[in-house]
Design goal:
InterPro entries: Folylpolyglutamate_synth, Folylpolyglutamate_synth_CS, Mur-like_cat_sf, Mur_ligase_C, Mur_ligase_C_dom_sf, Mur_ligase_cen. Keywords: ATP-binding, Folate biosynthesis, Ligase, Magnesium, Metal-binding, Nucleotide-binding. It comes from Kushneria pakistanensis. It is an enzyme of class 6 (ligase). With 421 residues, the chain is of the alpha/beta class. It folds into 2 domains: 278 residues, Mur-like, catalytic domain (UDP-N-acetylmuramoyl-L-alanine:D-glutamate ligase, 3-Layer(aba) Sandwich), CATH 3.40.1190.10; 125 residues, Mur ligase, C-terminal domain (Protein-Tyrosine Phosphatase, Chain A, Alpha-Beta Complex). 38% of the residues lie in helices and 16% in strands. It is built from 15 helices and 17 strands. The protein has an 8-stranded mixed sheet with strand order 4-3-2-5-1-6-7-8, sandwiched between helices. It has a 6-stranded mixed sheet with strand order 12-13-17-14-15-16. Strands 9-10-11 form a 3-stranded antiparallel sheet, covered by helices on one side. Helix 4 crosses helix 5.
Length: 421
C-alpha cells in the first residue's frame, strides 16, 4: 500500500541518525543510481548560496525568467506551511503525487545508504526537475554550500548573496572559512555573482582561483540606484554600450539581491526586456519576507544581518507603536537580533518555541529587560502570543520574527482568518 505524503515525510525523519550531516558521499551514491549525474537536469542551472537573501533571490529569479516566457523549477528550504512549497514548477507548488513517486523511486535504489530528510527531499526535487527538463532550474543551498546536498549538481551560474555568522554549530565562527564553504558552489569556467558590498575576502579569492571563471561583483561590475519615484534602475559598470534598466518596480525585497538576479541572467546569455522585467518585479510576494497581513509584518529574520535589513525597511514605515513578537531557537544570536531591531520596536512580546533547539520566552525577556526594554508579556507559544495581542494590543503594528518556526505558526493562524483586527 502506497504511503501518503505525510507518511513519507515521517519515514524520511527516521532514515538517518542525525538531522544534519553535511557531506556529498552518501547522496552522490544514490544520485548516480538514479542517473541524476548522467546529464543536465535542466537547460540551465543557477545555484544560490549565502547566509541571508537566498529565498528572495530564488523568488526573483523565478519570476523574471517566467515573465520572459521560460519554464522554471525552483527548489528552496525550509517550508513554512506545506512541504510542497519547497519545489515550484512554473511558479506552482509540486503535487503530492509527484513527490510520492519520486520518493518511491529513490527508495527503490537507496538500499542501505542512509540519507537525511534534506538529502531525500533534494534528490526527490532533482528527480522531478530532471523529468520536467525546464529551461532554468534554480537551487537554493540548504546549509553552507560546498558540502550541501544541492552541490552535487554543477551550476551554470553560482550566486553568493551574503556571508555572515549563522549555524555556528555546523559552519563554525571563522567568517573567512564560512566564505570558502559558501563559495564551494562556484564552478571553473562559469560565471560567479557576488551579491554583497561587504563580501568576505575568501569568497572573491576562491572565485579568482578557479580557472577561467568570471566573477561579477555588486558595486564593481554591476549596481543599482533608487529613482526619485521609488522605482530603481540597474546597470553594468564600465560598459557604456550595455543597457540600463530603468523605472523597475520595487519588489519589496532586497535590491542587492534583485540586482544580482539581473547580473546572473545576463551572464547566462538571457535577453532581458523592459516590459517583462516590470511585470516580474511588480508581482512578487514571498511568504515570510516582510509579508504584510493587516497589521502584522512577518519576516523569518533570525540573525543580526537579516534583522538589520528588517529594521531598515520598517524605519521607512513609521507607526505610533510597534510590538515585536519574537521567538528564537537557542543556537541563534538573540542579543544581536534584539540589538538590530531595537530602534524600530517599542514593546516586546517574547514567545517560547517547541522542540529541543528552542529558546524559552523568559530567556528572551531577560535579555530585553537587561537592555532596558519593555516586555509587555511572555507567551508559551507564538499562537498564545497572538491571543494576547488580540486581547490587549488590538491597534498596534506587530512585527513577527526570529525564526521560520515563529513565522510559520503565526502565518498558519492568520491564514485561517483568526487573530486579525
Amino acid at each position: 500500500m502506497s504511503r501518503t505524503l505525510t507518511q513519507w515525510l515521517a519515514h524520511l525523519e527516521k532514515l538517518h541518525p542525525v538531522a544534519i550531516d553535511l557531506g556529498l558521499e552518501r547522496i552522490r551514491i544514490v544520485a548516480e543510481r538514479l542517473g541524476l549525474l548522467d546529464g543536465p537536469i535542466a537547460r540551465q542551472v543557477v545555484t544560490v548560496a549565502g547566509t541571508n537573501g537566498k529565498g528572495s533571490t530564488v523568488a526573483m529569479l523565478d519570476a523574471v525568467t517566467r515573465a520572459h516566457g521560460l519554464s522554471t523549477a525552483s527548489y528552496t528550504s525550509p517550508h513554512l506551511l506545506r512541504y510542497n512549497e519547497r519545489l515550484r514548477l512554473n511558479g506552482e507548488e509540486v503535487s503530492d503525487e509527484s513527490l510520492i513517486d519520486a520518493f518511491e523511486r529513490i527508495e527503490a535504489v537507496r538500499a542501505d545508504t542512509g540519507l537525511t530528510y534534506f538529502e531525500m527531499g533534494t534528490l526527490a526535487a532533482l528527480v522531478i526537475i530532471r523529468d520536467r527538463a525546464p529551461d532554468i532550474a534554480i537551487l537554493e543551498v540548504g546549509l553552507g554550500g560546498q558540502l550541501d546536498a544541492t552541490n552535487i549538481i554543477d551550476a551554470n551560474v553560482g550566486i553568493v548573496t551574503s556571508v555572515a555568522l549563522d549555524h555556528a554549530d555546523f559552519l563554525g565562527t571563522d567568517i573567512e572559512r564560512i566564505g570558502v564553504e559558501k563559495a564551494g558552489i562556484l564552478r571553473a569556467g562559469r560565471p560567479a555573482i557576488l551579491g554583497s558590498r561587504q563580501m568576505v575576502a575568501s569568497v572573491a579569492a576562491h572565485a579568482a582561483a578557479l580557472p577561467v571563471s568570471r566573477a561579477l561583483v555588486l558595486g564593481q561590475d554591476f549596481d543599482w540606484q533608487r529613482e526619485a519615484d521609488g522605482c530603481w534602475q540597474w546597470h553594468r559598470a564600465g560598459d557604456e554600450t550595455a543597457p540600463v534598466w530603468q523605472h523597475l518596480p520595487d519588489p519589496g525585497l532586497p535590491l542587492d539581491n534583485a540586482a544580482s538576479v539581473l547580473a546572473a541572467l545576463e551572464a547566462l546569455g538571457m535577453t532581458l526586456e523592459a516590459p517583462s522585467l516590470a511585470q516580474a518585479f511588480s508581482g512578487i510576494c514571498l511568504a515570510g519576507r516582510m509579508q504584510r497581513i493587516d497589521r502584522y509584518c512577518l519576516d523569518v529574520a533570525h540573525n543580526p544581518h537579516a534583522a538589520t535589513y528588517v529594521a531598515a525597511q520598517l524605519s521607512r514605515r513609521p507607526v505610533t507603536r510597534r510590538v515585536a513578537l519574537l521567538g528564537m531557537l537557542g543556537d541563534k544570536d538573540a542579543e544581536g537580533v534584539i540589538e538590530a531591531l531595537w530602534p524600530v520596536v517599542d514593546d516586546w512580546l517574547p514567545v517560547t518555541l517547541s522542540g529541543t533547539r528552542a529558546r524559552g520566552g523568559e530567556t528572551l525577556a531577560d535579555i530585553i529587560r537587561a537592555r532596558g526594554g519593555q516586555v509587555i508579556a511572555v507567551a508559551e507559544s507564538p499562537t498564545a502570543g497572538i491571543d494576547w495581542l488580540e486581547q490587549h494590543s488590538q491597534h498596534d503594528d506587530v512585527l513577527v520574527c526570529g525564526s521560520f518556526f515563529t513565522v510559520a505558526e503565526v502565518l498558519a493562524r492568520l491564514e485561517r482568518g483568526e487573530g486579525t483586527a
